[in-house]
Design goal:
Number of helices: 9
Radius of gyration: 18 Å
Mean pLDDT: 96
Helix content: 25-40%
Structural class: alpha/beta
Order of helices and strands: EEEEHEHEHEHEEHEHHEHEH
Number of strands: 12
Strand order of the largest sheet: 7-6-5-8-9-12-10-11
Strand content: 15-25%
Oligomer: single chain
Length: about 260
């Protein structure tokens, strides 16, 4: 797939488009499944101001949005973090989640255990490698799914009541990470209603009702409900790339 994600932020006076390629690798590959480039344009005349590494921006902005959702939606006493998947997004999520939150235990599971072991050996803090997704999820307070799964790998009867789930993978209308039970028995938050109803297999195929967009919670228009079991379905929005690219460019410009 080739995705083109243009956006303009009036608040930041920033104009960008991101070009992202997505290849589903049937075998483990040294080339990432997602590769991206962000073009920053001058909103006054359309001139190209900068070409930025969109893969880094995508990894960091996606994890940052998950962290915002988690800050608002996770239970009051969250001690166990579980990550399902061991790719680029697992690393970026681990970095920001361990920086912002204090978990007593971090667990990881990946379809190929070697990648999970490599992850645990690469990051700064202690990580427990689990032999099954169920083992990783059992009793976890915050769960992050960042997999290439096309059928559910996380099931509702495994999930601790009141847990918060950031569902980041399964970005196609026929792909799933979460089963119907979890989708229907959780309070569902999304980054974009419009996107979720056309792009997310977890939302479309389960028929789960969307409670709120994350932005509505941030702005105080909808309650967060951290005492409930919550799911944040993240698909990514072009404006996130725009704000991040402008931030990077402004920082770089100030240094020059």
């Amino acid at each position: 797939f080739l995705g083109v994600m243009p956006a303009y932020s009036a608040a930041d006076d920033a104009l960008t488009t991101k070009l992202v390629t997505f290849y589903e690798h049937k075998k483990d590959s040294s080339v990432p499944s997602h590769q991206a480039t962000v073009l920053l344009l001058d909103p006054r005349n359309g001139s190209l101001k900068a070409v930025l590494d969109g893969s880094v921006i995508t990894a960091k902005r996606t994890a940052a949005v998950s962290a915002i959702a988690t800050k608002l939606l996770m239970p009051a006493f969250a001690e166990v973090l579980c990550i399902l998947g061991a790719g680029v997004q697992a690393y970026s999520h681990y970095d920001i989640f361990t920086e912002l939150f204090t978990f007593k235990e971090v667990r990881i599971w990946n379809r190929t255990k070697e990648k999970a072991v490599k992850f645990a050996n690469s990051v700064n803090g202690p990580v427990q490698v689990c032999s099954s997704a169920q083992e990783a999820v059992s009793g976890a307070d915050v769960i992050i799914t960042v997999t290439m799964a096309t059928t559910p790998i996380l099931f509702g009867d495994w999930v601790k009541p009141g847990a918060h789930i950031n569902a980041v993978g399964a970005s196609r209308p026929d792909w799933r990470e979460l089963d119907d039970e979890l989708m229907k028995n959780s309070v569902l938050f999304v980054d974009s209603r419009e996107a979720a109803l056309t792009e997310s297999g977890d939302v479309i195929l389960s028929g789960a009702e969307i409670f709120a967009e994350l932005g509505e919670v941030v702005k105080g228009m909808k309650p967060a409900l951290p005492e409930k079991t919550t799911v944040f379905k993240s698909l990514g929005m072009a404006v996130e790339d725009t704000v991040a690219a402008k931030f990077v460019y402004d920082s770089w410009s100030a240094g020059n």
